[in-house]
Amino acid sequence: MASSTPTRGLLFVTMQPKETLPDVRFHDWYNNEHGPNRTRLPFIPNGFRYRATDLEGTKNGTQDKPEYLAIYDITDMQQLMEEPYQYLRAPPGKTQREIDVMAQIWVDRMLFDFMGEKANDKTFVKLESPEHFEENLGGNGLTTCRFQLEAGQVAQAENWIKQSVIPVVETVPGWRRVSWFKNSYLEPRKDGKVEIVVIFEFTPTAEPKITGIYDNPPVELSNSKTRKYDLFYTFGGAARHLAIVAPWTHPDGVTKTIPHVSPAGSAIESTVTTQDGAVLPFRLEGNSADDSPVLVLVNSVLVTWNIWDRFIKHFFSTPENHKYRILRFLSRGRTFQSGTTSPVTVDLLASDIIQLLDSLRIPQAAALVGVSLGGATTLATALKYPARIKSFVSCDTSAKSPAGNKDAWGQRIAVAEEEGKTLRLASASGDESSSASPQPVVGEELAELTVRRWFVPESYDDPSIVPEIEKVKHMVFTNSLAEFSRGVEALFDYDYTSLLPTYKGKGAFLVGAGDGMLPKGMEKLSKELGSAEGRSAEFKVVEAAGHLPMVEKPTDVAVFVSGFLAK
């Protein structure tokens, strides 16, 4: 029976693709669907894929000696018998793609309950933790030993592991941890025996020699198997594997993988859930290498990530930029956020960017580029998390909330409330949908007032820009009014001016020439950034542009950002 105290354990799965399943299709499915669906669950804090190093020469794995191992720590084994995990094991949670792919894999899936561990306090780290990205990139060596015992012999075997096995392992340079498990109470063996797995972890430079430690066990070890592996892939809280084989959409309609996105790379759309429960839809696209540099684009209020579409097109038109991945997302203030009631501040929005980087296993963003509230968020993130942000470009914003901001935005909210427009909105993607009940949205009047304020008059006479203005107006029109009212509170009270002089990183400021008083204010910011070190930041004024220069003058902005990154 299950204990009232949660039982810690391990999901242990060996896999060997059959000849009918290409490796690229296998990895696309596993890295973008199967693994992330599990590591996004709160009781599965990590997930790792390992690849065997004990295969002869270049010989592939076999059914008896599989090439791949996946292990997931479980904080409460009983949760594997409950929703939402069980939802993943049968349709519709188990998708047709998963059914088709798994039919072409030899799988040995085991559940193990935790028994004990001994860690080396000098070398062991939690490789899944963001603070250990560097060690994770370095890799991890793994040796697994599985054997079976009679039920009455478990205590003897555990004493032997503690008293004889571990002392030998502790003499091996580079050992990290030894942990041991028994087959779970959830799946007792029909023959009454107990299966044990002992897992040895080593630094990647170590050459573990642990042979011989099983020569004199106190009990008979039947069906003993020893395997050796190297770390192959570490899961985060969302899909990020851009080496995509074929287009795929999850039944929930939110997670999508899109190969061959013009002009460079592939794309993934999915969500990340923050620690306080906010759902942040994101789009990751570009270079398929997991270690390729990442450019994060941060929106203003009232818009979607599509304000960057033409900027990205021009950015990727430069072949040198094909090395980049680009991350866009919908910040708080766009759509219904799973009922979270956290007060929205610029500090919170900055922490959301860090959570996105953590979930997508990005140790450091090559650059943040943000506009308006996104520009303030970009500045705050760079100033508060300098180790995670290599450089930034802050656009059309300020380092301190202007006086009267609260009243000005309050008046705009009142305009939308008075119009009373409602639409059916999707909770995750922000697109119009057939969800159950209409929600109040910003509406036509405030949308028109907003775009008239954001874009310079001459843009309304330019046939190439007018359709883009209409797209932005539709974004504003369809923004959830409740989320807008909450999200815009971030603009009421923030001040990062005291952090500007001592900043040691690389930053720049960009502004539309027609954006009111901001050009003058942002030029001042450029002189204050790093001033304590005798430095200043680059400053760019985009002519014939207003509050969203990446919409009106995407080429100019892309050229500036490309040059800034190249320096």
What does the secondary structure layout of this molecule look like, with pairings?
Elements: E1 9-17, H1 23-39, E2 48-52, E3 68-74, H2 96-102, E4 105-119, H3 133-138, E5 141-149, H4 154-169, E6 175-183, E7 194-202, E8 222-234, E9 248-249, E10 256-258, E11 266-273, E12 279-286, E13 294-298, H5 309-316, E14 325-329, H6 346-359, E15 367-371, H7 373-384, E16 391-395, H8 405-419, E17 422-423, E18 439-440, H9 444-454, H10 466-477, H11 481-487, E19 506-512, H12 518-528, E20 538-542, H13 549-552, H14 554-566
Parallel strand pairs: 13-14, 13-15, 15-16, 16-19, 19-20
Antiparallel strand pairs: 1-3, 1-4, 2-3, 2-8, 4-6, 5-7, 5-8, 6-7, 9-10, 10-11, 11-12, 12-14, 17-18
Helix pairs in contact: 5-14, 6-7, 9-10
Describe the protein's architecture and organization.
By secondary structure, the protein is of the alpha+beta class. It has two domains: 9-234, Alpha-Beta Plaits, CATH 3.30.70; 248-405 and 494-566, Alpha/Beta hydrolase fold, catalytic domain (Rossmann fold). Helix content is 27%, strand content 23%. It contains 14 helices and 20 strands. The protein has helices at 23-39, 96-102, 133-138, 154-169, 309-316, 346-359, 373-384, 405-419, 444-454, 466-477, 481-487, 518-528, 549-552, 554-566; strands at residues 9-17, 48-52, 68-74, 105-119, 141-149, 175-183, 194-202, 222-234, 248-249, 256-258, 266-273, 279-286, 294-298, 325-329, 367-371, 391-395, 422-423, 439-440, 506-512, 538-542. The strands form three sheets. The chain has a ten-stranded mixed sheet with strand order 9-10-11-12-14-13-15-16-19-20, sandwiched between helices. Strands 1-3-2-8-5-7-6-4 form an eight-stranded antiparallel beta barrel. The protein has a two-stranded antiparallel sheet with strand order 17-18. Helix 12 links the parallel strand 19 (506-512) and strand 20. Helix 5 (309-316) packs across helix 14 (554-566) and helix 9 (444-454) crosses helix 10 (466-477). The protein is elongated, with a radius of gyration of 27 Å. The relative contact order is 0.09. The mean pLDDT is 93. This is Alpha/beta hydrolase. GO terms for molecular function: hydrolase activity. Belongs to the AB hydrolase superfamily.
